[in-house]
Write a structure and sequence with these properties.
about 110 residues; alpha+beta; five-stranded antiparallel sheet; three-stranded antiparallel sheet; 3 helices; 8 strands
Amino acid sequence: MTMTTKIFRDSWMKTKRATHGEEDDDGTLRVVYHSTPVVEWNGCQTGLRVTLRNGGHATVTTKRRMNEIAEVYDLGFLVSQKDFEWSVTVYPLGGGTEEGWTLPFEDGMTIDR
């Protein structure tokens, strides 16, 4: 099963309220929470490009959706919060032992891998 097909079949997404997957003709994949495409990526591990959005809703559930998506699709990031400020830690793809690097979260930020 390709990642493209998998996005619509994962049981975790079926159990999440107000969450669905979308795919463009060019292979771009996104998971939408309410009306915000919280995570969008180009569907391939080579030259992976991930865009993160919270749509101005810095909520626990928005952050949780982003992190669930990162784990399910092995996108190599973790969104966290300290003192009301969000940050994104980017990890090497495919696991590895290297530590990640942390960036301040910005709505609409893109991570190129």
